[in-house]
Amino acid sequence: MMPLRVVPGLLRVISILLAYRVDEMVGEEKGVNPLKFFRPLAAKPRVDVGPLSRGERLRLAMTELGPIFVKAGQVMSTRRDLIPADIADELSLLQDRVEPFPGSEARAIVERELKSSIGLLYGHFDETPLASASIAQVHAATLHDGSKVVVKVLRPGIDRRIARDVRLLRSLAELAQRWHPRADKIRPLEIVAEVEKMLENELDLQREGASASLLKRNFASGFDLYVPAVYWDLTAERVLTLERVYGISTDDVAAIDAAGLDRKKLAVKGVRIFYEQVFRDNFFHADAHPGNIWVDPARLEEPRFIALDFGIMGSLPETDQYFLAQNFIALFERDYARIAQLHVEAGWMPANLRIDELEAAIRTVCEPYFTRPLSQISLADLVVKLFRTAQRFELTLQPQLILLQKTLLNIEGVGRLLDPDIDIWAVAHPVLKRILRERYSPLRTLREVRKRLPVWLHDAPQFPELVRDALRQFGRGEQRSVPDPQWLKLQQDSARQQQRLIACSLLGSSLMISAALLWTLAPQHGSLPPMLESIAGLIAFAVGWPRSR
Predict the structure, then answer these.
(1) Which residue, 381, 370, 347, 367, is CA-closest to 486?
(2) Cβ atoms of residues 361 and 393 within 8 Å
(3) Which of 95-104, 379-388, 461-470, 474-483 has the weakest average pLDDT?
(4) Which helix (H) or strand (E) holds 76?
(5) DSSP per residue over 125-182, as a string?
(6) Given its phi and psi angles, is residue 300 left (phi above 0), alpha (psi -120 to 50 degrees) or beta?
(7) Rounded CA gap, 233 and 154, in Å?
(8) CB of 259 within 8 A of CB of 266?
(9) What residues does 314 pair with on adjacent strands?
(10) Distance CA 310, CA 139 (A)
(11) Catalytic residue among 287, 309, 320, 419
């Protein structure tokens, strides 16, 4: 049931959508267009919509509807696995720019949030904003020690407006869910949920500061990527103070060339930074469009990027990260059977799926791409088509993978803008293999075992009771459902692998510790016994090491 409080806003939205003839995109395939009955109420559009494409009409309508709808359109543009390409291309052009609110209000918000006068907080605070968006605006300032900073301030009353507009978006999504012929594929309610989560994160500037701080720590050298420092004593939930940085937007190719920067080197670094964020650090900038990624004009010999705006960051569960990395490696090596198997093992596909059918579908999508030179293959475009193909096999698309897909599109776009001839595959493949080699090395595994060993030892005494309880339940007939045989086999294989890893890791750790103690405390026995124990420990680790299938 639609709440009455959203009706006035809903009527305004319908009026603007009708004015731009967006209603023609709804219901035509069903032979029913519920919005056409409201056409007499339509507002007059600001442009002649006749010659415009459907994507252009939707983009102009969302721009007129306001900033929250612009944000929703930006999210929709990332769903190229669900949204037609022509509409996604147009929605990606949406700009989140609005009129600034008065600088005096920004000053008042800063003083209220930081509980002090502006004169005590900053040496100088410029009330004229540098930039203004739907959520916040940015002001230049100077600290008492002369350091240049920028102050990001949330718009007054933005919380209430977002809550109101999200309710309205949800009502529109419910209408689309009911009437749009492809609603089951587009899933408008899920898109609104993504917008809501994104806005919730962006409304907490302290969270954004924490994200900037972590990203800076991950790239502490600042050699390839520079992240501005956070001034925590001048930061709160509605105010964020960052070091001021200067750079060139990555889409300003003419300015980059005029500065004498090597665009080819920058393009390669951009791809490498993406894979390091995703697979090395598991923390990536998920809004990496050219406006948020600058180039440092002061670094001519070894150019680097500067990151801005950390409101939307992404990370993956460890399991998804592993399976995604393996999928990329299999894609680089054209191992379609491995890709299909990984999708099932990861739980992204039903366990009863026929692997050979999925493998054939993946091969059908990929093979035409590999007839071209690798420098002409768009990895982002190929991943989107693979997602679309996988949906026919009941793919469960994870929200965290959608953010990653969006970032991949952005990064590849930036890379090709800087160097149209960049071979994404040649750059990405060795970088990913190196990261995986380091991430899953025996030394790192040993560190993980040492970290988790106390937990395993704490839980070990409970295992016999858990097994006994499970057997009793089975004996009483309480285990009613029969798992799918293929799923059960995968779970059994995984359990056996984990048991072998735990047992061999414990044995290997014990032997290595014993060797160290023997070497340190009993040197009179010579180096041979500890060396033999060390070799035995390494063999134990090798035996327990997970085998890829």
Answers:
(1) 347
(2) yes
(3) 474-483
(4) helix 67-77
(5) EEEEEEEE-SSEEEEEEE-TTS-EEEEEEEPTTHHHHHHHHHHHHHHHHHHHHHH-TT
(6) alpha
(7) 17
(8) no
(9) 284
(10) 17
(11) 287
What's the CA gap between 99 and 338, in Å, rounded? 52
Alpha-carbon dihedral sign for residues 389, 390, 395, 400: negative
What's the per-residue H, E or C state across 283-348? CEECCCCHHHEEECCCCCCCCCEEECCCCCEECCCHHHHHHHHHHHHHHHCCCHHHHHHHHHHCCC
How is 468-534 classified by DSSP, letter by letter?
A: HHHHHHHHTT---S---HHHHHHHHHHHHHHHHHHHHHHHHHHHHHHHHHHHHH-GGG-SHHHHHHH
How many of the other CB atoms lie within 10 Å of CB of 331? 21
Q: In the numeric block, which tokens belong to residue 302?
A: 């070894």
pTM: 0.73
Cα–Cα nearest to 310, from 393, 172, 423, 217: 217
Maximum pairwise Cα distance, the chain: 99
Q: How confident is the model at residue 133 (pLDDT cuts 50, 70, 90)?
A: confident
CA–CA separation, 294 and 290 (whole Å): 7
Q: What are phi and psi of 148, to 5 degrees?
A: -85, 130
- Catalytic residue at 459? no
Tell me the per-residue pLDDT of 452-507, one tens digit each, with 9 for 90 and over.
Answer: 767 766 766 776 676 667 667 766 665 545 555 555 555 566 656 666 666 676 66
